[in-house]
Amino acid sequence: MAHFMSWTLEALAKHPSRPLFKEYVPTDGSPSWVSVSYKTFLQDLERSAAFWVEHLSALGVKQNEVVGLWFVVLRIPSITGVKYSDCAHIYGLARAGYVPEVLNAKMTIPIIRDLFVKTGGKALIFEPSFVNSVTDIELPTLAIPDLASLPAVSLPLPDLPEVAPDRPCTHLPYQWHNIGHTEACPRDAPVDKMPGPSAVVQDMAVLPGWPTTHRQQYWLLRQYRVCNFPILAITYLSWSGHCLVQTSKSDFELDEFLAMLNEGLNALFLYAPWFSKLLNIARSNPTVLAALQGMGQINYTGAALNPEDEVWATEQGIPVTALYATTETAITMVTPLAEKGVLPAMRLIDGLDYKFIPTKGLDQKDLDGDSQNRVQGGQLFDLFLPADADNCPHSSVRNRPDGHITGDLFEEVKPGLYCFRGRNDDWIRTGKHFAFCDTKSIEDHVLTSCADLVRNCVVVGHYKPAVVLFVEPTEPSNSPEDETLLKTAILDRISAFNARLIVHERINSAAQIVSVPSGSLPRTTEKGNIRRKAVEDEHSAVLKEIYTNFEV
Questions:
Q1: 5-261 is classed in which CATH architecture?
Q2: In degrees to the nearest 10, what's the CA dihedral of 38, 40, 42, 43?
Q3: Could you give the CA distance from residue 471 to residue 487 in angstroms, rounded to a whole number?
């Protein structure tokens, strides 16, 4: 199987003079950016590739072997996330024929060691500031060089290796993109099928304007901490000659948005919560409203908009499309702009061999409150990807022998049009950036480590700033002092496990534990499982008080 870089290099060479990346540059005055052309990026990744070929081969690392990149969270002073040089080194490693596994600064050496056992990591490349932390890795290590210091390529680079059908051509650890821990260890998401040019053109065909106009699109690149979208977006956008405009931070301010318009910003890809804030500003700011109306397209994902936002954006002629994608599957569904008034309904992208199969064993009352309010009484469906589908994830992360179910629920509201109706598994989004959290692994650990204290429990916090643990104690609490002792004991017993979790998944204080009478948490009728969404609804007042005093 051909390496994905073979056609990515071809795509990068098509538009040498166009800007590919608008890199945010902190200043004391107004926001500013530096343009990086396609030609410059291609040269930079090749210089990076030459460096890694020389130094990794000297350490005995061979092509098609996994190499970890341990990035620091950039702060200059407010940027957090992927730097331009990070992208150049990731693509440089891939051009050299290695398998880049992107790691985040929040990971510890024990976690990285655990990951490398699973992925076969052969070497660790690290930010120079981590030099005192890599002594215990017991693998070859190299500091990431300053990109500007690398010399021009003087010798031909090696040919790209062939990739076996079952061999990942890149690794992206889940929890720094949009998945959390499983059993206190990050889940690895190997990518064994990078989309080829035809698939990318197909993806672009659902984004009106890309295949039919010669105008270059400038897409907002919202900052994330080492996220797969900023990294892989270069592969997707380069084929059509478009540009990424970097933000200073994930929740950038209005003045920065207006400044980006002067940089050419004419398309948005962002999460629904921030887009909702932007729409709220546009209601009273004619400049922002006109800017949104003039966009080529605005894609939002990650959650549903408020119905009022959907209606208002449609009435104002803002070119909004809901988009459904997951780390495992990439883009699978999008709202057709040509069909007016259907937002937030989406259609499957043409040519994808996916199926909607009826969800079994789920009562609609088990949905979160927002989804309950939206459902129209129809059958709920799972989105199923057969094993031979182009975007079906690697076999190691599939949840069915014959393919993969995303875990999200949909309702068909018109023929071929589906609306998102929440999730049907144990993952929730939580924390400042709404990252995924595996609630079941936390619950299982509490029940195991606190078996004499806790009869049952549930973790909640979907689209909230932190998780909250509800427990039914084995013995009733007869006083506030008893409840305090119970919470202290739980915190103590889960401390080692808790320390290995990502920040947004941790239970750090007694304020994140709520004790309720045994048997009082709402349960399903058939199996008696605790209904997570119903707990959130039933205890909404308690949760509101907790989150009002919670500091992200």
A1: 3-Layer(aba) Sandwich (3.40)
A2: 160
A3: 9
Distance, CA of 306 to CA of 276 (rounded, Å): 8
pLDDT < 50: residue spans in the chain: 73-81, 172-184, 195-213, 223-227
No. of H helices and E strands in the chain?
Answer: 16, 26
pLDDT value at position 418? Answer: 94
Task: Give me 470's structure tokens.
Answer: 């509800």
Alpha-helical (H) ranges within 213-271 are 228-238, 254-262
Measured on CA atoms in the order 511, 516, 519, 521, is the torsion positive or negative? Answer: negative
R_g over Cα of the chain: 24
Encoded amino acid at 79, one letter: I
| CATH number listed for the domain at residues 428-548 | 3.30.300.30
pLDDT for residue 221: 60
Q: Where in the chain is the domain with CATH 3.40.50.12780?
A: 5-261, 266-423
What does the alpha-carbon distance between residue 384 and residue 352 come to, in Å, rounded to a whole number?
11
What separation in angstroms does the CA of 291 have from each of 265, 298, 399? Answer: 9, 11, 43
The pLDDT of residue 79: 33
Dist. CA 377–CA 289, nearest whole Å: 35
Residue that is written with structure tokens 């080529």 in the block: 296
Q: Which long-range contacts (CB under 8 A, 24 or more apart) does 288-293 make?
A: 288/254, 288/257, 288/258, 289/316, 291/257, 291/258, 291/261, 292/316, 292/318, 293/317, 293/318, 293/319
pLDDT of residue 546: 93
Spatial contact of 15 and 242, defined as CB atoms under 8 Å apart:
no
Handedness of CA 487, 493, 497, 499 (dihedral sign): positive
- What is the pLDDT at residue 213? 45
Q: What is the torsion angle, in degrees rounded to the nearest 10, for the CA atoms of residue 422, residue 323, residue 440 and residue 458?
A: -40
Could you tell me how many residues make up the chain?
552
Cβ proximity of 197 and 222 under 8 Å: no
Topology classification of domain 266-423 = Rossmann fold (3.40.50)
Residue 61 confidence (pLDDT): 96
Beta-carbon contacts of residue 5 (< 8 Å; ≥ 6 apart) = 91, 94, 95, 160
E strand or H helix that includes residue 357: strand 355-358
Look at residue 367 in the predicted model and tell me its pLDDT: 65
pLDDT digits (tens, 9 = 90+) for 145-184: 999 999 999 999 999 988 776 555 555 433 333 344 444 4
Domain with CATH 3.30.300.30 in the chain: 428-548
What integer pLDDT is reported at residue 230 of this predicted model? 55
Pairwise CA distance, residues 374 & 379, whole Å: 13
Q: Do strands 454-460 and 297-301 pair parallel, antiparallel, or not at all (unpaired)?
A: unpaired
